Amino acid sequence: QVQLVESGGGLVQAGESLRLSCAASGSIFRINVMAWYRQAPGKQRESVAHITSVDNINYADSVKGRFTISRDNAKNTVYLQMNSLKPEDTAVYYCNAEIYSTGRNLRNYWGQGTQVTVSS
Length: 120
Prior knowledge:
mainly beta
């Protein structure tokens, strides 16, 4: 079994920063893409940032220049540093990873989500 566990959400004021973490654990052989998504109330889940195993990175236009995604392959962990937060960044943030298990099965996994609330 593979599990993703997020941490680091919270309530901040506009302009402040937060750092999200997501650790993968379990029967992991290799992790391909790791990513962050978010879902605001009444809206569809949207991609925030992706990072591949060789550190190719993509960001949503709405977060470019403010958010930074990174990963520590030794710890099977992905991070999202969020600076200059805006009220419109308020959402539940989900970690996502494409993982080969030790049984060589490739699957897409989701974390449980962590709430980020930015007050104006």
